[in-house]
Amino acid sequence: MLIRFTVENYLSFKELVEFNLIASEERQQNHHILKGETPEDIDLLKTSILYGANASGKSNLIKAMAFARNLIVKGIGKNRAINVKHFKLDSACACKPSRFEFEFRCQGKQYAYGFSVDRTKVHEEWLFEMGHDLELPIFERVGSMVSFNFEHALFQNISEEEKQGIGYEARGTKDNMLFLNNCHERNIRPFHFLYQWFSEVLIIVFTTSKHQALTSLAKLNIEFFNRVIEFFNFGINRIKVDDIDFEHSNEISHAMKEEIRADFPYGQGNTQFVSIASCNYLIEETASGTLKASKLTTIRKDAAGNEVTFEISEESEGTQRLLDFIPMLIGLSKDKVFVIDEIERSLHPLLIRKLFELILKHDLYKPAVSQLIASTHEVNLLDIKNLFRKDEIWFMEKKQSGESQIYSLANAHVDDIVDGYMKGRFGAIPFIRDIKDLGW
User: Fold this and answer.
1) Which residues of the chain register pLDDT less than 70?
2) Closest to 202 measured CA to CA, from 367, 325, 65
3) For residues 198 and 335, what is the distance between their CA atoms, to the nearest angstrom?
4) 306 class by beta-carbon count within 10 Å (0-12 exposed, 13-18 middle, 19+ buried)
5) What is the CB neighbour count within 10 angstroms for residue 2?
6) Which of 85, 158, 343, 405 has a CB 3.0–4.6 Å from the CB of 374, allowing a cystine?
7) Domains annotated on the chain, with CATH
8) What is the rounded distance in angstroms from the CA atom of residue 114 to the CA atom of residue 72?
9) pTM of this prediction?
10) Which of 326, 344, 313, 308 shows the shortest CA–CA distance to 235?
11) What's the pLDDT tens digit per position in 144-172?
12) Closest by Cα among 62, 45, 51, 52 to 11
């Protein structure tokens, strides 16, 4: 679970800004709180929504998370520059590192992991165990020097030889590489679960994101997919996975088939996802060593009651967006953290509200320790009586200097939040000049 994210000197964030999911003392909607299990644990929130005018910095906050996550998970090639984007409206920021930090709960404990980087190297990197009154270092990196607290419980089951190996790998970490990413490449066991949190638990979705494994997930969860389709009532009777004759079908060109055969990881039990002409195919290996393909399609009925098959690309943008959200609905029942930019994109306001109600109230999600964070312009979600707590609502605003600032509605005294927001009481709305100023 995500506790807090901080960023400094990146895109529209000049000074250090903080976004968190820490529950306040507010008593409303207590079922939204993920209670800590020990005195050191912090009570966290299941959801959070972020509002702001266009260009206020909402997407930049999510881009900052995505940049940091990608540097951790994917790393960077040898001798390549780090594509960090400093705050550009102050020339002094070009000479300063950008700073990122995640605080999160993983395997029953709370950690703070962060780093500072410029285009050429990692300046600092750190990992601490955290709590209400706890800040215990695990490792700290300054330049090329990494120091370890081998007394920490994280290292209790490893030998002296393994500790020496960790120190050796730390010293060999390239300047433009994070030590945590190097730990994954070198299979250093004590840090594997932390890397796994970023690679598998933290999932970031932009408006252009397409779920490549949608067909594979549908094959495993076809009944769940069809229940969601029925629940949101998009006029689709059902969805199904169609098997394609890989060798003889004309849907995939001969040249593309040859390319797929050449790249496929035979004998490893893996699959490939291939996008051809707006259609995503799942490629799998058969028991005989040949390849087979499948794709996701929708089924509707014509006036005579006959079933008609549609490609996913033939469906509306809203339908495609909803289909891409179904993996999120599966993941939120299995302890994931989803961060979604412009969650309302191509979807009706009532559908988005129903989506949050489903996640916050359905029995499937009550035992899960998952979180959904989303930016939005949809004011109909600003319902602190029936839908959200005040501490789940955040606002983003850009100052005259071009810096983005972020603040929560927690502890604010407000009756009609929609009216107050639209009148600018909380800021974070666009200020548009008089139409006469156009000079038309």
Assistant:
1) 413-440
2) 65
3) 13
4) exposed
5) 22
6) 343
7) 1-208+336-440 (3.40.50.300)
8) 10
9) 0.89
10) 308
11) 899 999 999 999 888 999 999 999 999 99
12) 62
